[in-house]
Amino acid sequence: MKRLRWGILGCAAIADRAVIPAIQASETGELLGIASRDETKARNKAEQFGIPKHYGSYEAMLTDPDIDAVYIPLPNHLHKEWSIAAAKAGKHILCEKPLAMDAKEAQEMVDFCKETGVHLAEAFMYRHHPRIARVKEIIASGEIGKLRGIRGVFTYNGAANKGDIRQVKEWGGGGLYDVGVYPLSAARLIMGVEPEAVTVQALFSAEHDDVDMMASGLVEFPGHVALTFDCGMWATFRNELEIVGTEGTIVLKPSFLPSKETDDIAIHVGDSVRREGPYGIDAYAAQSDQFARVVWGEEPPAYTAQDAVANMRLLDACLASARTRQRVVL
After folding, report:
1. Among residues 163, 155, 142, 192, which one has the least CA distance to residue 75?
2. Where are the alpha helices (DSSP H) in 50-170?
3. Of 123, 158, 190, which residue sits at a domain end?
4. What is the DSSP letter of 326?
5. 258: buried, middle or exposed (CB in 10 Å: 19+, 13-18, 0-12)?
6. What pLDDT is stored for residue 16 in this prediction?
7. 29, 103: one domain
8. Residue numbers of the chain with a pLDDT score lower than 50
């Protein structure tokens, strides 16, 4: 079987915890190399995970003709720079969310990758899990009635980790960038249309470089349906998505970090609860397999790169609303 030969730019924790094992376990991928600005660090990671190649710079990986695609888990402010560098080198790109620092940067990335003929995808792995498609089927079936609202929460307490990259404002730190993007993208996916306006309140913490450590908001969609959400890095861990209809609800818990043991769906109608799953799917592996099949021309992307621009536009509006304490119309 042919394999897409992957390289990883950087030694981020998300790569260790999820993406490296997923690529190695996928049907389509081969993890060929890992790069760091610290060659010793790259060598240690390569030895730890049995990766054949390591590089002491990102540039060295990008000049390697054996690498077909790169995964970029770098801090947010470096996404545009290294995605464009990878595209110039002819590498296909899976970039961590959020795709960029703002919608303007994201559009520039999308346009450049289109010009150079490389596939660019934003790494929202949960969207590649089959239960997301199943949720849309349940809604379309009318089982929970007419859609009335969506509620999404994603919080964790990382306030004590002073100096973490998520707490550096100039690097794209903050809870909306880190975890708020999940309920925002999920609501857009479920609704199938773009929102009309947002209102967000946030805690911008002086002791955490003025990034939003907690935010709560309302995202208005056409048809009088709204997403209510809260997200942040200074609250107890919560990870849930609820879709509310006139006759019932659909609950995903955990929603954006499903494991093979917890990737089920709960459908509440009246006094009854029906569960579907667990599916036992590694969403990260599903993401990498879909990416490879797009690169090979075997199927269209499940989510276009332009979708990432739309999500950044919504994120920009949320941040503007939180800073100004005003409703922002998109």
Report:
1. 163
2. 58-62, 79-88, 103-116, 130-141
3. 123
4. S
5. buried
6. 86
7. yes
8. none
Active-site residue, selected from the candidate residues 45, 80, 91, 97 = 97
pLDDT number for residue 195: 98
Radius of gyration of the chain (CA): 20
Let me know: does 287 contact 18? Beta carbons within 8 Å: no
pLDDT of the residue at 104? 98
Token pair 């021309």: residue: 297
For residue 174, give Cα distances in angstroms to 120, 167, 232, 319. Answer: 24, 6, 8, 10
CATH at residue 262: 3.30.360.10
**Residue 142 in tokens:** 């009318």
DSSP 182: H
Q: 120: Cβ–Cβ under 8 A, 6 or more apart, which residues?
A: 83, 87, 92, 93, 95, 109, 110, 113, 305
Write out the two tokens for 125: 């792995």
* Alpha-carbon span 258 to 256, nearest angstrom: 6
Q: Can you give the residue range of the structural domain that contains 21?
A: 4-123
Q: Is 97 a catalytic residue?
A: yes
Peptide bond into 254 cis (omega under 30): yes
Q: Which of 123, 157, 189 is the last residue of a domain?
A: 123
Q: Are residues 116 and 136 in the same domain?
A: no
- Residue 286 identity: A
CB 203 within 8 A of CB 232: yes
